[in-house]
Recover the amino acids of this structure.
C-alpha cells in the first residue's frame, strides 16, 4: 500500500473497516449489512482484502506444489506388510499349510524313532559314561596313550637320521630334550 | 407413496464407505498425503520431520482404522492424528533444540520457486512470489498454535468447529489464535492501519 493511501487511512480511519471487521471478512464470517455496504463503495478495503486473499492463495499453491514434489517415504513396504494378515491368498496359504504339515509330520516321525531307540540306549549310555569316568578306565587310557607315544618315538626318525646324515649337536640335544620330556 | 427411512442405515453406510476408504492405504496416501505433509511441514517449519510425521500418521490411521466410527470426515480424522503427533513432537527436547537451530526449515526462495508460472507476466509472477515470501515469513513468526489454526482455516479450508475438533481446542481459543494470525499476516503484507 502506498504512503498516500496510508495517509488517507490515518485521516479517514473511521470510514474504513475496523481490525475486527477486516478479520471477520478475511476468515469468511458472514458480514453484516454495514460491512457489506462499506465494501461495496470502499475500494481500499476491498483491495486490501483481495491482496490478503490472493497472498494466502499464492502461499497455499506454492506450499501444495512443494508438498506434492516431496515423496512420503517408506509407506509402501509397511503397508503391504500389514495388509497381509487378512487378505486371502489361496495358493500361498495352501502352500504354507502344506509345508507346515510336512514339518510337523517329519518332526513327529523323527521323535518316534528317537524314542524307540532311546528305549534301549539309556542303560548303554549310562554304562559307557560310568566306565569312561572310572579310575580303572582312565588308567587304561593312559597306558594306551603312553604305548602309542613310545611307538611314535621309535618310528619318529628325522629324514636326516633316516638317510644317515649327521646333524648339529644343538639339534640333537634339542631333540633329546624333547624326547626326555 | 411414502417410504420410511431408517436413520441408522445412513451413518452405517457412511461408516462402511469410510472403512473402505481407509482400507486402501495407497489411495489414502495419494489423496491426503500432500495436504497432510504441507500442513505438518508448515506447522512445524521442518520438512524432514514433516515427512516422518506424515508417514507415521498414515500408519496410525491404518492401524486404527477399525476404531474409526465415521463421526467426522476421514480428512478431519487424519488431521487429528497428525495434530496429536505434532503435539507429541513439540514436547520433545530434541525438537526444541532443532527449532532453535532451524537446520531443516523450509527455504522461502525454494518455496516461491514452486509457484506455477502459467501465463502470468514476469511482473505478476514477481509480485506473487513476493506475497508468498511475506506470508511464509509472517507464518514463521507466529506461535505453533496460531500457525496450525491459520493453516487449517486457509489452507485446509476447515470451518471453526472442524478446527476446534481437530485441534481439541475450544472454538473461542481457535478464534483468538486465528485473529492474531490474520493480524500478523496482514501487518506483514503492509495492510495494517
Amino acid at each position: 500500500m502506498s504512503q498516500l493511501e496510508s495517509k488517507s487511512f490515518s485521516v479517514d480511519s473511521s470510514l474504513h473497516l475496523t481490525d475486527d471487521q477486516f478479520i471477520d471478512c478475511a476468515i469468511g464470517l458472514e458480514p453484516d449489512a454495514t460491512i457489506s455496504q462499506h465494501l461495496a463503495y470502499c475500494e481500499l478495503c476491498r483491495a486490501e482484502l483481495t491482496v490478503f486473499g490472493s497472498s494466502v492463495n499464492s502461499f497455499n499453491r506454492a506450499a501444495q506444489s512443494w508438498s506434492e514434489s516431496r515423496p512420503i517415504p517408506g509407506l509402501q513396504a509397511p503397508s503391504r506388510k500389514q495388509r497381509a494378515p487378512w487378505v486371502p491368498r489361496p495358493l500361498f496359504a495352501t502352500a504354507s499349510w502344506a509345508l507346515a504339515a510336512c514339518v510337523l509330520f517329519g518332526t513327529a516321525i523323527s521323535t518316534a524313532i528317537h524314542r524307540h531307540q532311546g528305549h534301549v540306549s539309556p542303560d548303554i549310555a549310562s554304562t559307557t559314561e560310568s566306565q569312561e569316568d572310572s579310575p580303572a578306565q582312565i588308567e587304561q587310557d593312559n597306558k594306551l596313550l603312553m604305548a602309542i607315544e613310545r611307538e611314535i618315538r621309535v618310528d619318529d626318525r628325522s629324514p636326516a637320521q633316516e638317510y644317515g646324515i649327521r646333524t648339529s649337536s644343538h639339534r640333537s640335544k634339542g631333540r633329546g630334550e624333547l624326547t626326555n620330556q | 407413496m411414502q417410504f420410511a427411512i431408517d436413520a441408522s442405515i445412513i451413518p452405517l453406510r457412511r461408516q462402511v464407505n469410510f472403512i473402505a476408504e481407509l482400507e486402501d492405504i495407497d489411495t489414502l496416501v495419494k489423496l491426503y498425503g500432500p495436504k497432510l505433509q504441507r500442513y505438518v511441514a508448515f506447522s512445524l517449519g521442518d520438512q524432514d520431520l514433516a515427512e516422518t510425521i506424515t508417514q507415521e500418521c498414515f500408519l496410525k490411521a491404518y492401524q486404527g482404522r477399525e476404531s474409526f466410527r465415521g463421526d467426522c470426515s476421514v480428512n478431519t480424522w487424519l488431521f487429528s492424528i497428525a495434530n496429536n503427533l505434532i503435539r507429541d513432537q513439540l514436547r520433545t527436547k530434541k525438537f526444541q533444540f532443532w527449532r532453535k537451530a532451524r537446520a531443516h526449515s523450509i527455504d522461502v526462495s525454494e518455496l516461491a520457486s514452486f509457484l506455477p508460472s502459467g501465463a502470468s507476466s514476469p511482473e505478476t509472477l514477481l509480485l506473487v512470489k513476493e506475497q508468498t515470501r511475506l506470508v511464509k515469513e509472517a507464518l514463521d513468526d507466529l506461535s505453533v498454535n496460531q500457525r496450525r489454526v491459520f493453516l487449517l482455516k486457509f489452507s485446509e479450508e476447515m470451518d471453526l468447529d472442524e478446527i476446534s475438533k481437530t485441534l481439541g481446542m475450544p472454538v473461542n481459543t481457535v478464534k483468538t489464535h486465528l485473529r492474531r494470525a490474520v493480524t500478523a499476516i496482514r501487518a506483514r503484507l503492509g495492510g495494517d492501519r
User: Anything to note?
Assistant: The two ends of chain B are 62 Å apart (CA to CA). The domain at 9-106 of chain B is CATH 1.10.1740.10 (Rna Polymerase Sigma Factor; Chain: A). Chain B touches chain A through 47 residues (CB under 8 Å). The longest helix of chain B spans residues 25-44.
